Amino acid sequence: RQIAVRPTSATIRYLDQEYDLRAAGEELKADSIVEGSLQKIGQNFLINLRMVDVDDGKIAWAESFTTDLENALAGQDSIASRVSRIMALNADAPMAQIASPNIMAQDAYL
To answer: Using the 8-state DSSP alphabet, how is residue 71 labeled?
Structure first.
């Protein structure tokens, strides 16, 4: 099985709304969906992620991450690396390379 990550433009319609997991999976041609939440608490970010199997709705993996504002980029890199490893294990596929984030763009976003 191959791992295919859909671009934000394909998934943005699901942001901040209820959606049917099976219908979303079918529409995106996905076997699993990674969904999550982000909370800013003081100078820290709490990120909760979970990978859900589209067919049966069962959670295949879930994990929480905490990173501080000063190390947000390093935290983002660490989380992306962890998620890609989990996805590769789940699909028995080779791990993908993760591009380095643009620090100036991240700073402008925050």
So the answer is: G
Judge whether 54 and 21 are in contact, CB under 8 Å: yes
Helices (H), the chain: 8-11, 21-28, 72-91, 103-109
Model pTM above 0.85: no
Contact 90, 51 (CB under 8 A): yes
Tens digits of pLDDT across the chain (110 residues): 677 788 888 888 888 888 888 899 999 999 999 999 999 999 899 999 999 999 999 999 999 999 888 888 788 888 888 888 887 776 654 444 444 444 455 455 44
Cα 86 off chain centre by: 11
DSSP letter at 69 equals G
Structure tokens at 4: 């295919």
- Pull the structure tokens for residue 30: 């996905």
